[in-house]
Amino acid sequence: MAAVSLQQVLEALAEPVRRTVVSQLAAAGEDISCGMFDVQVSKSTLTHHFNVLREAGVIRQYYVGTTKMNSLRTDEMEERFPGLLSALLTASALEAGASTN
């Protein structure tokens, strides 16, 4: 995480699909396999988004057997960029609520 810049994290989180992935991980409260996300993009596009989030230090990916799992790096993000992830999640939830009204 020490090599990750704020610019890299902000660019990763500026994209709506990636924010959706992060929001779904946070809401689940547990790790989620790649195929379980509710997003309207192809598998290859979703793989690209996972790569960007992983390179920005926002998520960690690991295998359980042949299933690739995704974990939100909440503690590491909080230590490196205090308050950023929680502010993003709050703003995303507020924006999602406003768009449904």
Task: Give a verbal description of the structure.
The mean pLDDT is 94. A three-stranded antiparallel sheet has the order 1-3-2. It has helices at 6-13, 16-28, 43-55, 74-80, 84-100, and strands spanning 32-33, 59-64, 67-72. Helix 1 (6-13) runs antiparallel to helix 3 (43-55) and helix 2 (16-28) crosses helix 5 (84-100). The chain is of the alpha+beta class. The chain is globular and about 35 Å long.
Key structural traits:
101 residues, alpha+beta, three-stranded antiparallel sheet, 5 helices, 3 strands
| Low-pLDDT windows of residues | none
- Tally of DSSP helical segments: 5
Helix proportion = 55-70%
> Which strand order spans the largest sheet, edge to edge or round the barrel?
1-3-2
**For the terminal residues, how far apart are their CA atoms?**
38 Å
- From N to C, what is the helix and strand string? HHEHEEHH
- Which structural category do the helix and sheet elements fall into? alpha+beta
Fraction of residues in β-strands: 5-15%
Radius of gyration: 13 Å
